[in-house]
Amino acid sequence: MKTINFIFRVHQRFNLKRYFFFDIGNDHYYYDDYANEQAMDYACSQCYIEANKMLLEMIKNSNGRFKVSFAINGLVLEQFEQYAPEVIESFQELAKTGKVEFLATPYAHSLAALYDLDEFERQVKLQAAKIKQLFGFNPTVFANSALIYSDEIAEKIAKMGYETIIVEGAKHVLGWKSPNFIYSHPYLKKIKLLVRNSKLSDDLNYRFSQWNWNEFPLTAEKFIGWVKSTPVNEKVFNVFLGYEALGILNNANSGIFNFFRALPFHAIENGLNFALPSEITEKNAATDTLSALYPMSWTDEEKDTSAWCGNELQKEALEKLYALAERVNLCTDALKSDWYRLQDSAHFFFMNTKHYSDGMIYAQPIPYESSYQAFMNYMNVLSDFIDRVKAQFPSSIENEELNALLKTIKSQEEEIARLEKIVEKIKKQKK
Fold first, then answer.
1. Which of 190, 189, 270, 191 minimizes the C-alpha distance to 237?
2. What CA–CA distance (Å, rounded) separates 86 from 95?
3. Rounded Cα gap, residues 274 and 264, in angstroms
4. Nearest by Cα to 107 from 58, 145, 152
5. Partner of 47 at 20 to 30 A CA spacing, among 58, 76, 247, 279?
6. What's this model's pTM, rounded to 2 decimal places?
């Protein structure tokens, strides 16, 4: 039976305010609260509230046959808690159905997988803990920021205990292979890869509202027909898109909500099924291996990482940021909050020169007139942040000393975890 796996990436950036050179050392608050609240209000009214309500109805009206997954990072959860707690409640209602899966992803929607694998691991653990706290769900499937992936990154993900990873269906990696199969890592055979069907995903994400698209208008019946008409042996269709596709990139007048409401009926009528990522990999074996020697992503035609680290401005900003990792992780919580917000990949995306003239549609407008302005604003903020970190851990402290402190802290954490397991075991024995 052919199976459709719907996954939505949920992300909302923290906008930086215009931060000038003379603010360095004088102003330690970096965010445009007005822009953040306005953006959240707009996203809630156009997307989150209506989309969550619709998905809940789809699950109930299909007697639980429709299923859906979310990759929600920590930064957007922080903003929901601050500006829109009703959205958290609506996701909790979805979680109660048992037909929803929450994926693991970096807390800060960051590029840590490319620059600092230890920081990457810390963020994944932090996001998983947040998901457990809010929704009572332990993630078992992983999706990186913008689906950034390589064979090497997969090794780190495997060490964290995840055996299913969502990856992009990049042509230069797939070659002649179809995205509609389950693959495995080339040498870590336990790792199963679910490949995003780029065409189906982008048809909904970017082309659905384009009247000059040759398939316009796209109906649920036509979409299901495309899936059904694929070769018999192609069983898995992973449709991964930004949640903003529902109501923002495609507004309500485009018919996007009616399209989704009709999907379960047409799928069931045509013998198609919906499933969660963990269900798919539990019940099906990999048919072949898939290797990505260099990092790939779901962005741009190139499907690489040049959108965030393709020019000298981006590289300088990223190198200075991640050079702070060891010190920041010994600092106070106030600094750590800024640390995560400053890692959001959007800051570096704005520094990419090609995005100011390519005509693409974005859920939120780019807040800078040029990549250089984006770079200067970010570097002013980062300079102040660096000074605050140095105030707690001066640059005179050698990295060797920091490493010794980190090893001590890590060994203490491991000992605490070991003792907690012993205590839990004793409690169970007493019961």
1. 270
2. 14
3. 8
4. 145
5. 279
6. 0.91
Number of H helices, E strands in the chain: 19, 10
Which H or E run includes 93?
A: helix 85-96
pLDDT at residue 358, rounded to an integer: 45
Vertex 116: Cα angle to 111 and 122 (nearest 5): 85
Torsion angles phi and psi, residue 111, rounded to 5: -105, 25
Tokens 């797939």 label which residue? 174
Q: What is the mean pLDDT of residues 415-429?
A: 77
Which residue is associated with the tokens 């596709």?
245
Q: How many CB atoms lie within 10 A of CB 398?
A: 9
The secondary structure of residue 187, as a DSSP letter, is S
Q: Is 191 within 8 Å of 185 (Cβ atoms)?
A: yes
The residue to which tokens 């810390």 are assigned: 122
Amino acid at the residue 78: E
Q: Which CATH fold topology does 3-289 show?
A: 7-stranded beta/alpha barrel (3.20.110)
Largest CA distance in the chain: 70
241/202 Cα distance (integer angstroms): 7
Looking at residue 15, the DSSP 8-state letter turns out to be P
Q: Which residues pair with 195 in a beta bridge?
A: 167
| Count of CB atoms situated within 10 Å of the CB of 41 | 12
Torsion of CA 242, 243, 249, 255, to 10 degrees: 130
Cβ 352 vs Cβ 310: under 8 Å: yes
In a 3-state reduction of DSSP, which class is residue 241?
Answer: strand
Distance from chain centroid for Cα 155: 19
Q: Mind listing the pLDDT tens digit for each residue in 302-329?
A: 999 999 999 999 999 999 999 999 889 8
- Scan for tokens 């199963």, then name that residue: 192
CA atoms of 183 and 191, how far apart (whole Å): 8
Task: Tell me phi and psi for residue 6, to 5 degrees.
Answer: -90, 125
CB 150 within 8 A of CB 295: yes
CA distance 59 to 148: 30
